[in-house]
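Ops channel
N.P.: pipeline sanity check, posting one input/output pair.
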């Protein structure tokens, strides 16, 4: 599965009721329903750690619908002799409501439910007593966002032709965009569409992700924080309408949490004249389509 040279397609994007023709999409979502999108690249180098003999247990975190947990469950299939533990915010009653959690359980991932306060403490402190009885466990952060993930996401830029001068993607923790910024070419501008509130938090995260590893001499990027539609996983009627119209005129799909906010923002930015017709824009489809009806 984890092959360092994939064939990833780029196709033209249609926007409903417009003549816009200078936007294409990098179909990372097509790699795999659960392990595809940015998850594939976040895990690409983390896999080497997971394989290590001394890590008999792999622990990570997420909410009941987390795409990262869905990818984690697929890893469990690849490494059936290891113990996989998912620390999930909430309680047992969520399993029957969440296809993600149901699948985790069916693949023998041990789900440990904790309340929101402890969840946050554990995410922020891998030396917490909670982890004491798992010896030599490998702990992957929320969203799989660590330095190895940033390194993996940098390799997304290997699939981006130099003919594109604007690269646009959704951002939540900032790890994926940090990788893209590290790999961008000097004539390219990177645009991150924040899917949640909190530009300062995002900026701080991106700075931290960029301050490790190789230093960049140029980095030309912007965070656009006006398109979160109320916050993480929040939606508005106009977003939902846009997503459904967009899906009618394209032969790939978007959902409202990440890719929907990305293309909605791009559409507004194009309509507001932020780009010129001569610009060649590439949207990066980071996946997240675990359970759309056509799958
Ligand atoms: C489908 C999808 N797209 C984009 C993102 C945002 O990536 P990041 O957290 O690296 O900013 C996520 C979360 O990891 C995601 O699940």
């Amino acid at each position: 599965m984890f092959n360092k040279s994939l064939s990833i397609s780029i196709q033209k994007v249609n926007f409903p009721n417009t003549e816009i023709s200078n936007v294409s999409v990098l179909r990372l979502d097509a790699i795999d329903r659960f392990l595809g999108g940015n998850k594939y690249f976040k895990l690409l180098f983390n896999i080497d750690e997971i394989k290590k003999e001394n890590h008999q247990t792999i622990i990570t975190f997420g909410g009941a619908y987390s795409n990262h947990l869905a990818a984690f469950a697929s890893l469990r299939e690849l490494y059936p002799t290891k113990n996989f533990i998912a620390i999930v915010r909430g309680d047992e009653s969520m399993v029957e409501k969440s296809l993600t959690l149901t699948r985790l359980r069916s693949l023998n991932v041990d789900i440990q439910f904790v309340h929101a306060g402890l969840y946050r403490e554990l995410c922020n402190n891998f030396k917490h007593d909670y982890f004491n009885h798992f010896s030599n466990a490998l702990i992957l952060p929320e969203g799989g966002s660590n330095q190895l993930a940033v390194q993996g996401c940098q390799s997304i830029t290997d699939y981006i032709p130099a003919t594109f001068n604007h690269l646009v993607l959704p951002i939540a923790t900032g790890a994926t965009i940090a990788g893209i910024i590290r790999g961008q070419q000097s004539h390219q501008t990177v645009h991150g569409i924040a899917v949640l509130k909190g530009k300062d938090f995002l900026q701080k995260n991106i700075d931290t992700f960029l301050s490790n590893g190789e230093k960049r001499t140029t980095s030309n990027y912007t965070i656009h924080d006006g398109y979160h539609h109320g916050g993480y996983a929040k939606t508005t009627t106009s977003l939902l309408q846009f997503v459904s119209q967009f899906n009618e005129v394209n032969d790939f799909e978007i959902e409202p949490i990440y890719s929907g906010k990305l293309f909605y923002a791009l559409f507004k930015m194009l309509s507001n004249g932020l780009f010129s017709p001569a610009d060649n824009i590439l949207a990066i489809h980071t996946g997240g389509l675990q359970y759309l009806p056509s799958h």
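N.P.: looks fine end to end. Residues 199-211 form the longest helix (13 residues).
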